[in-house]
Amino acid sequence: MTDRLRFRMVLPTRMTWIAFAAILATISFTAAFLIARYPTLPLLLPVHFNRVDRANGWQFKTYGRVLMPVLVQSALTLTLGAIGTLLLSRSRHVDDNVADGSDGVPASVRPEEIAASTAAEAVALFGLIWVAFQSFAGLALVAMWERGRGGLGDWYTVATTAGIVLSAIVAMRARKHLGRPAPRQFVADHWRFGQLYRNSGDPALFVPTRDGSGWTINFGRPLAAALIVLIVAIGIVGPTVLFSLMLR
Q1: Are 129 and 167 a contacting pair, CB within 8 Å?
Q2: Which helix (H) or strand (E) holds 35?
Q3: Cys-Cys link to 234, which of 8, 74, 171, 238 (CB 3.0-4.6 A)?
């Protein structure tokens, strides 16, 4: 009897690939726009303004400062890409002497793989929304630097609101596609405090809840949980802090 560790990837959905291609195109556009406008920007960039939006603080123009939106976009892409890859990754011990499904995957894991591809698609769409937002932020920053007065404009607020609304739509869409899973056979050792699933031997990140009413996270994969925390820290809090520092 031979037992070996098999590693495989769940195939991304077509929408995931489209979102990924759009993210790369958006980052390329943002970088090209900012580099093209760099020579026309003032040597001293206004970064702090008084109550009447007149500049009272400046910083020297550098490529790093001007290309900050591209750096934020890259950080978002790398972080969300890592989470998406983790969602789609599978590793499990298999017995070469035990018959498997026709495609080499037991039928019992297929619902979890569908959930993983759906979650990865949602992550890719989240990434596209906020990478596009950072592109708009880059355009707004250039306009502010050129006019020398404070404020990113009313459209910046509109773009922020649109990003939040679209993110909520993506979340609801993913929830609908995930559907109601069939509950697994209950194993007491895999559940903590009644509802927290923890099984390091389970390759799935998303697993059915005990009653099958929805999905929960497999806390037996600590790296996955850490990356989910990073999406909040780097994807949302990080850009806000960076722009606050730029405008001090």
Answers
A1: yes
A2: helix 14-37
A3: 238
